[in-house]
Each structure stands twice: as C-alpha cells, then as structure tokens.
Design goal:
The chain has 288 residues and is an alpha/beta fold. It has 7 helices and 10 strands. It has an 8-stranded mixed beta sheet with strand order 1-4-6-5-7-8-9-10, with helices on both faces. A two-stranded antiparallel ribbon has the order 2-3.
Length: 288
C-alpha cells in the first residue's frame, strides 16, 4: 500500500471519529438517567415537566442535558451541574444551562441535571431520591466517558444551593460502584474527581470525612448567612483532611446570584472567572 493511500485511510478514519464524537450527544440533548424511568416510579416517566421562566417542576423522569465542547477545544474534563431551588423546583436556565454553556466554552463537557423534588407540593420523593439521581448522573457520564471524549478520572460535580446539598451527599457518602450489577452504569463509581460548590445549603455536610475528599472550590456571599456558615464548616473539615480547597467568601451579594450576570457588584459579576482560574491552576483545563 502506498504512503498516499495510507494517509488517505488515516484521514478518513480521523474524520469519521470526529463526526462520531460530535454525534454522540447533540448540544442540549436530553439524556434520561434510566431507560425506563426512575426505579420504583417507572409508571410516571412520561408525565410532562412544568417549566416557566427560570424553573422546572414535576420532574418524574430525571435526566441530564449535555453540552459538549468541540473536538478542537475539548480538554477531556467533564462536570455534572446540579441547580438549586430549595428541592421545590430546579432553577434550570440560570443554574443549569448558563453554567453548562460557560463550561462548554472552556472546553469542559457539561451535563445539567434535572432531579426529583422532595419539597414540591404532593411529591412522593425524598431528598435521598434526588441524591440517587445525582449519583446516577455521575455513573452515567463515567460509564460513557470514551463515547464523549472524557477522561473518566476528570469528572467533577457542581452544586448550587440545594444542589450543593446533593453534591455533599454524593461526594461525602459511599461512591463505589456495584461490580456485579446487571446494569453496566451501576458498576461505575460516582465519586467526583473535583467539586465546585456555590452558596450551598447545610444538609448533607458530615461531621467528619470517611475518606479524603476531592479538591474543592467553594463560593458564597458572607451576607448569605446559611451558605456562608456551610462553607466555613466545609473548610474546617477540608483543613483537617489535608485536601486542597479554595474559598471565596464575598462581603455582599446575597443568595441566588447565579452566574453573576444580574448583579451590579463587580466581585459577583466576575466570580465565574475565579472558578475558571482555579480550574486552570488545577490542571483541569489542560488538554489530554
């Protein structure tokens, strides 16, 4: 075979792989966490969600919405984003889609989670069910890492407000996969390789860590008393464990400032850059 012919075959293979990677998940594609619906609630998977302005409710078929970077910009890093909403609703556009697109611009594959709501009126769910959705999202992305061009050792989790509580339940709880599970997704670990926590609630924060936690980035406003206290508690635990953590506790800003676009405070408006700087310094934006 001639050199020219070999080069043509290699080029065709590379083009095919590029298209295959791009086709693996379309920008904004909704991917259900379970094929037949959440275990025990399969009969409700076809109930329509209710969405208005900045929130989504009536979630009975938990899912992630994928935002993948282009092959040219992809770093191999991925993140599961868990929006807040007091477990009554999911603040999906401001704390799901907006950060997902921001991560995508950094070359990070982002998956925004819609989870079951324990505090929604008439809900049959518990917060632990929502935590199971977050664990399943981590396992789903890790099990399909090769398909999406992701390094399975560079998958993080981001939690906002109530989503920060779910992040804590996932990160500081049992994360091992079930090696004998018939569902291949359940065999994957749900342990995050890093975490980003923005104005978290206090639920799910342990009194001590059962193992060394992953590197963390914490951010809140000091006049948002509950989340500021939660971050202070987490920083104390991180110092005890010796694990790396970066904390930004701004003097003012209140709660639910999302990606900072609506705030007139310079610190709040530009806070996502601090997160990007931390990711860069941590090697998470270096291509692999």
């Amino acid at each position: 075979m001639s050199i020219q012919s070999t080069m043509r075959r290699m080029l065709c293979a590379l083009v095919f792989l590029s298209f295959a990677g791009a086709a693996a998940a379309q920008d904004g594609e909704v991917i259900p966490l379970w094929q037949n619906g959440a275990p025990g609630y399969e009969s409700r998977r076809n109930e329509a969600e209710i969405a208005q302005d900045w929130w989504v409710r009536n979630i009975h078929n938990p899912s992630v919405t994928a935002y993948l970077p282009t092959p040219e910009t992809a770093t191999g890093t991925a993140i599961i984003i868990i929006p807040g909403g007091g477990h009554r609703e999911v603040v999906f556009p401001p704390e799901g889609i907006e950060p997902a697109r921001y991560f995508q611009s950094l070359g990070v594959a982002a998956f925004a989670l819609k989870y079951r709501l324990a505090n929604e009126e008439g809900s049959p769910y518990r917060i632990e069910d929502a935590a199971d959705d977050a664990r399943r999202a981590m396992r789903l992305v890790r099990s399909r890492a090769a398909e999406w061009g992701i390094d399975p050792a560079r998958i993080g989790i981001m939690g906002w407000s109530a989503g920060g509580e779910l992040s804590a339940l996932v990160t500081y709880g049992r994360t091992e996969g079930s090696a004998r599970a018939s569902d291949v997704i359940e065999r994957a670990s749900c342990r995050p390789d890093f975490q980003i926590v923005i104005y978290p609630g206090s639920y799910g924060i342990p009194t001590s860590f059962r193992s060394t936690p992953p590197p963390a980035f914490f951010l809140a406003a000091n006049d948002d008393v509950g989340p500021a206290s939660a971050i202070t508690r987490l920083l104390y635990l991180y110092r005890q464990s010796g694990a790396p953590a970066e904390v930004h506790l701004y003097a003012q800003g209140g709660h639910a400032f999302n990606m900072g676009n609506r705030s007139e405070l310079r610190t709040i408006h530009s806070w996502p850059q601090r997160m990007a700087d931390w990711m860069s310094d941590s090697g998470l934006l270096t291509r692999r």
